[in-house]
Design goal:
By secondary structure, the chain is α/β, with parallel strands linked by helices. Helix content is 49%, strand content 21%. It has a domain of 112 residues: Rossmann fold.
C-alpha cells in the first residue's frame, strides 16, 4: 500500500511564531504517516480543530487574543474535542506553568528551544496512548453491549422457564388434589402435557448448558471425516415419531460423497436443532428435506421446510443474543431461539457458516456451509 493510501495521523501545530511553525511543519512533514495542519493563534486553533479533527495538537502558550491555556480549556470543554491529546510548547520551564498546563488538560509539556527528536518521540508516544485508549473504550463498550445482550437472553430464558414450571406445578397440584375426581382420559391428557413440558425444559437446559460451555471455552473439538448422508438418516429416524404426530414428511436428499471434516457431536447438534425447528413450524401436509451440495470447496448442508416461514425483519434478528425472535409453533410449541445461536457458533468453530432464507407462508431454509472433507485422521483441539 502506498504511503498516500495509508491512514495518516493528523497533527495541528498552533504557534504565533512563523519560524517555529516553519521548523515544526518541515520536520513533521518529512515523517511518514503524518498530515500537518497549522494555526497562528487560539481562535484559528479552535476553528481548525473543528474542521480538521486532529489526532494530536502541539499548542504554544503565549499567543495574542486567546492564549494556549484558554484554548486548551475550551477544547476540553467540548464533547467532540475533549479527548484530543494536547502537548504544550513553551519557553516557560517553571513548575507553576507546568502545573497550570496539566490542570487545563494537557498531556505533556515541551520546553523551547525544543529538540526535534524529542518532539517526535513524545508525539508518537501520545498518539499510541490515545489509540490504545480508544481501543479500550471500544472494547469496554462492546463488552457492556454483550453483557447487556446476555442479561436479556437470561431474562427471556428465565421467563420461559418460569412459565413452564408454573404450568407443570399447576398440573401436578391439580392431579394431586382431584385425583379421584378426574377421569382416566383427563389424567392421561395432564400427564401427556406434563411430559411435553418436561421435554421442552430439558431441551432448553441442554441448549443453555452447551452455550455456557462455549462461552467459557470448555468444549473439546474432535474433527473427523463424517458422511453427512448417514447423519441425515439417523436424525430422520430420531424425529420420525414427532413428524408422524403432525403428519409431516421427513426426506433425506443427501447424495453420495457428501463428506466433511467436522466434530461429529457438533454436526449432530446443528442438524438436529435445525430439523427440530423445521418440524415445529410445519403442519399437516408439510415436508422437511435434508440435502447437500458442493460448490467452491464447501459442502452446503440444507434443512428446508414448507412451513409457515417468517418475515425478513424477523429473519435478520435470529442470531442476535438477547433478541426474542422465537414464536409459537403450529401446535403452540415454544422455544427460546438459543439452539439456533449455539448451532451458529458451532458452525463457525470449524470455519463454517450458518445462513437462513425464509418467506412467510412459503417456508424456511437454513444452510450450513462447511469445508469439504480432505484425507486425514481425527484431530483434537480444545476451545
Amino acid at each position: 500500500m502506498a504511503v498516500s493510501e495509508q491512514i495518516q495521523n493528523r497533527i495541528l501545530i498552533v504557534d504565533d511564531n512563523p519560524t517555529n511553525l516553519k521548523v515544526l511543519f518541515e520536520y513533521l512533514s518529512g515523517e511518514k504517516g503524518y498530515k500537518i495542519f497549522i494555526a497562528k493563534n487560539g481562535r484559528e486553533a479552535l476553528e481548525r480543530t473543528a474542521n480538521a479533527k486532529p489526532d494530536i495538537i502541539l499548542l504554544d502558550i503565549m499567543m495574542p487574543e486567546i492564549d494556549g491555556y484558554e484554548t486548551c480549556k475550551r477544547l476540553k470543554e467540548q464533547e467532540e474535542t475533549k479527548d484530543i491529546p494536547i502537548i504544550f510548547l513553551t519557553a516557560f520551564a517553571d513548575t507553576e506553568n507546568k502545573i497550570k498546563a496539566f490542570n487545563r488538560g494537557a498531556v505533556d509539556f515541551i520546553v523551547k528551544p525544543f529538540n526535534q527528536d524529542e518532539v517526535l518521540a513524545r508525539i508518537k508516544t501520545h498518539l499510541t496512548i490515545a489509540k490504545q485508549k480508544k481501543e479500550l473504550e471500544k472494547a469496554n463498550f462492546e463488552l457492556a453491549k454483550a453483557n447487556a445482550s446476555k442479561d436479556k437472553l437470561f431474562s427471556i430464558i428465565a421467563h420461559d422457564m418460569r412459565n413452564k414450571l408454573s404450568g407443570l406445578i399447576g398440573s401436578i397440584e391439580l392431579i394431586d388434589s382431584f385425583f379421584n375426581e378426574l377421569s382416566d382420559e383427563e389424567k392421561r391428557e395432564r400427564i401427556k402435557s406434563m411430559s411435553n413440558t418436561s421435554q421442552q425444559m430439558y431441551k432448553l437446559f441442554e441448549n443453555l448448558f452447551t452455550w455456557a460451555r462455549m462461552q467459557t471455552g470448555s468444549i473439546e473439538v474432535v474433527t473427523e471425516n463424517i458422511n453427512v448422508g448417514k447423519i441425515a438418516v439417523e436424525i430422520i429416524d430420531f424425529f420420525r415419531a414427532d413428524a408422524a404426530n403432525k403428519d409431516i414428511s421427513l426426506i433425506s436428499d443427501v447424495k453420495e460423497g457428501c463428506d466433511v471434516m467436522y466434530d461429529k457431536n457438533m454436526l449432530n447438534f446443528i442438524i438436529r436443532n435445525l430439523v427440530h425447528n423445521a418440524i415445529k413450524y410445519c403442519d399437516s401436509g408439510n415436508s422437511v428435506t435434508i440435502s447437500c451440495s458442493e460448490e467452491g470447496g464447501y459442502h452446503h448442508i440444507s434443512v428446508k421446510d414448507t412451513g409457515i416461514g417468517m418475515k425478513k425483519e424477523v429473519c435478520d434478528l435470529l442470531f442476535q443474543v438477547g433478541t426474542k425472535t422465537s414464536k409459537l409453533g403450529t401446535r403452540k410449541e415454544v422455544g427460546s431461539g438459543l439452539g439456533l445461536m449455539v448451532a451458529k457458533e458451532f458452525a463457525e468453530l470449524n470455519q463454517g457458516t450458518l445462513s437462513v432464507r425464509s418467506e412467510e407462508n412459503v417456508g424456511t431454509e437454513v444452510i450450513l456451509s462447511l469445508p469439504a472433507s480432505s484425507a486425514g485422521g481425527a484431530c483434537v483441539s480444545k476451545l
